[in-house]
Amino acid sequence: MAKKSLIEKEKRKKELVKRYDAIRQSLKRQIKSSLSIQSKLTISNKLQSLPRSSAPVRLRNRCSLTGRPRSNYRDFGLSRHVLREMAHTCLLPGVSKSSW
Fold it and tell me: Per the CB 3.0–4.6 Å rule, which of 17, 28, 71, 99 could disulfide with 80?
């Protein structure tokens, strides 16, 4: 189980990314459409003045049940430990344990 403080910090980052997403996208479109270098520089300075944590790159995928930050499967949103346990108890439809 991950520390609750890190999980809460990640939730706050997600909210921040969601809040600044429209502003960030519009500034990026303006940079692409502007022709002069000076206007591109001023727009990029506005983009850089946004909070750092509002960039989607700073988000970390975590397990939805345990909060584990590593070895997550995107399709399920679970870590490998939880995925294996749920597959063994037949809680995931269409997933079966393979052995050879």
Answer: 71
